[in-house]
Write a structure and sequence with these properties.
The protein is α/β, with parallel strands linked by helices and 620 residues long. It folds into 3 domains: 243 residues, Glutamine Phosphoribosylpyrophosphate, subunit 1, domain 1, CATH 3.60.20.10; 184 residues, Rossmann fold (3-Layer(aba) Sandwich); 145 residues, Rossmann fold (3-Layer(aba) Sandwich). Helices cover 35% and strands 23% of the residues. The strands form 4 sheets. It has an 8-stranded antiparallel beta sheet with strand order 3-2-4-1-10-9-11-14, with helices on one face. A 6-stranded antiparallel beta sheet has the order 5-6-7-8-12-13. A 5-stranded parallel beta sheet has the order 16-15-17-18-19, with helices on both faces. The radius of gyration is 25 Å and the shape is globular. The protein starts with a strand and ends in an 18-residue tail after the last helix. Bound molecules: fructose -6-phosphate (F6R). Fructose -6-phosphate (F6R) binds next to helix 9 and helix 16.
């Protein structure tokens, strides 16, 4: 949450910074702002609302030509989404401009301290204290190279909470500095030009060479000296260099109206990429990147899957698969709850943290708690080099490519598939499944990309149905077994995209109270398991459809090809290909994504950037 861009080079900094902000806008869109440095003076522009508002203002008023600049797109925490609270924040003497992602927890005493020296604040943000402190500390820092970085270190040592801070100083025409604790920041290294970004999308159009920064580090970008990284005490640090494995085209809409539509369409390839190189020729799983020894994996006696939102739903699906394949007990927990209830963890507990962005603060804090308790932590993550995989004992990347739409789609499907890989790998290493059983499931996994393709090729009736639902104010989603998390995910997608009240229920639980919600015409979406599923779950769900229909519901049924048992009770049937029960969520979720996307579009809403949200939630 909050997107950050910094630039030093020879190009027009405003162009570079605005282009970076366009690519980072998914991280927050409550306001946007830029600062450029020219002829020893800082000039800023900032505007509440989406980046387009700022761009409109800049098109009219402009800023001086410059080759050094910073920019910010905001997801509001302290202080409402107003022009005044937009970043950058400038010190009272006009010498320093600062942008910030995160929360400075001790901002109140620091603000009081600044006010005691006569400083008048012009915003309600926590960030503004940094601008004033930095200006004051800079003035007291001895002259010489690295002065702004030294001032930033001094200020950073005083801050509590989570922050990425980027600053420029009017007296330093060649320098941008940044500081990082618990919030994301990457450095891009071009030919004689240097970039900062909350993620690599900020500079991918200019360079694919990136540097990873660790916790509590300060980086200086200098036009001639290049990149210098230190810890908060000034000890020099060698950053890890890497090459970004996707290009600018991957971050563009590619002809689709919305990033979300593009990302839905990319799912067959994304799932294929998650499986790539992990399915051996003999039908075995090859997960070399899981840096836990076979003995460690054999010693595991309990698994926790910990995540937030959509990733949590992937975890709920994982529980069915991992327990079924390995017979190890699995608990699934919301990351924001996990560490506050003192879970029982030890060396033989495997904690699987699932996060598309790798930066979600709740998940990161849960991970740290698990490590403190000596549990082994395996991350399932999409963003290479992000904080969560870096701090985990082992990582399985999903390789889904950049996910820009705020609502997760390909991120989710690939998380589910990666969870299957973890479960099956555990079963293989622990010898609880014979090689031919593992090979049979591997074959089923290989079939998934084509099955998703088949679903995507028959979505026209779903779009038509969606248009007829766009004026509803409530939709209910039902499922059993792995269909239950799919129902939760379908409801979440609809809530966040279309702002329609939606709830997901375990189909068997509805009769224990919530069935009272059903009225004449209430749309109820039911995820029906395969007729081949265990213990006649299928028959029970068919009964549940009858129960809601008898009370007036308009039933929308997602059922496998050839399942005619549902026909007498379905007002609408959405067909999906035959898929093994445990793997079915990978196909049954797709129509629900399309449904939510189309309903939101029909309602005239911004599908990629729903209100009040941000892509990467880096506050607790
Ligand atoms: C909903 C959605 C969110 C994220 C959640 C966790 O569509 O995208 O619920 O799933 O914020 O994000 P990550 O996976 O980045 O940790």
């Amino acid at each position: 949450m909050c997107g950050i861009v910094g630039y030093v080079g020879s190009k027009d900094s405003l162009d570079v910074v605005l282009e970076g902000l366009r690519r980072l806008e998914y991280r927050g869109y409550d306001s946007a702002g830029v600062a450029v440095l020219a002829d020893g003076r800082l000039s800023t522009a900032k505007k509440a609302g989406k980046l387009a508002n700022l761009e409109k203002e800049l098109a009219e008023a402009g800023l001086p030509a410059s080759t050094i600049g910073i920019g910010h797109t905001r997801w509001a925490t302290h202080g409402g989404p107003t022009d005044r609270n937009a970043h950058p924040h400038v010190s009272a003497d006009g010498s320093v401009a600062v942008i910030h992602n995160g929360i400075i927890e001790n901002f109140a005493p620091l603000r009081a301290e600044c006010e005691a020296t006569g400083v008048e604040f012009s915003s309600e943000t926590d960030t503004e204290v940094v601008a004033h402190l930095l200006a004051a500390v800079y003035a007291e820092t001895p002259e010489g190279s690295g002065r702004l970085a030294e001032a930033m270190r001094t200020v950073s040592r005083r801050l509590e909470g989570a922050f990425t801070l980027v600053a420029t100083h009017a007296a330093e025409p060649d320098t941008v500095v940044a500081s990082r604790r618990n919030s994301p920041l990457v450095v891009g290294v071009g030919e004689g030009e240097y970039f900062l970004g909350s993620d690599v999308a900020a500079f991918i159009a200019h360079t694919r060479n990136a540097l990873e920064l660790g916790q509590d580090q300060v980086v200086e970008l200098h036009r001639t000296r290049g990149v210098t990284v230190t810890d908060f005490d000034g000890a020099s640090v060698e950053p890890t260099a890497y090459t970004v494995d996707w290009d600018a085209a991957a971050a563009e809409k590619g002809g689709y109206d919305w990033f979300m539509l593009k990302e839905i369409a990319e799912q067959p390839q994304a799932v294929a990429d998650t499986l790539l190189g992990r399915l051996g020729e003999q039908g075995e799983l090859v997960l070399d990147e899981v840096r836990l020894s076979d003995q460690d994996l054999r010693d595991i006696d309990k698994v926790f899957v910990v995540a937030c939102g959509t990733a949590y739903h992937a975890g709920l699906i994982a529980k069915y698969a991992i327990e079924h394949w390995t017979r190890i007990p699995v608990e699934v927990e919301l990351a924001s709850e996990f560490r506050y209830r003192d879970p029982v963890l030890d060396r033989s507990t495997l904690v699987v943290v699932v996060s598309q962005s790798g930066e979600t603060m709740d998940t990161l804090m849960a991970l740290r708690h698990a490590k403190d308790q000596k549990a082994r932590v395996l991350a399932i993550c999409n963003a290479n080099g992000s904080t969560i995989p870096r701090e985990s004992d082992a990582v399985l990347y999903t390789h889904a490519g950049p996910e820009v739409a705020v609502a997760s789609t390909k991120g989710f499907l690939t998380q589910v598939v990666a969870c299957y890989l973890v479960g099956l790998f555990l079963a293989q290493v622990r010898g609880v499944k014979y090689a031919d059983e593992v090979a049979a499931i591997v074959e089923d996994l290989r079939a998934l990309p084509d099955q998703i393709r088949a679903v995507l090729s028959s979505m026209d009736p779903v779009r038509e149905l969606a248009r007829s639902l766009a004026t509803e104010d409530t939709l209910l989603f039902l499922g059993r077994h792995v269909g239950y998390p799919v129902a939760l995910e379908g409801a979440l997608k609809l809530k966040e995209l279309a702002y329609i009240h939606a709830e997901g229920f375990a189909a068997g639980e509805l009769k224990h109270g919530s069935i009272a919600l059903i009225d004449q015409g209430t749309p109820v979406v039911v995820v029906v398991p395969s007729p081949r599923s265990r213990e006649s779950v299928h028959g029970k769900v068919v009964s549940n459809i009858q129960e809601v229909r008898a009370r007036g519901a308009r039933t929308i049924v997602i059922a496998e090809d050839g399942d005619d048992d549902v026909l007498p009770y379905a007002d609408h049937v959405i067909r999906v290909p035959r898929t093994p029960t445990l793997l079915a969520p990978v196909v049954t979720t797709v129509p629900l994504q399309v449904l939510a996307c189309e309903i939101a579009s029909t309602r005239g809403l911004d599908v990629d950037q729903p209100r009040n949200l941000a892509k990467s939630v880096t506050v607790e």
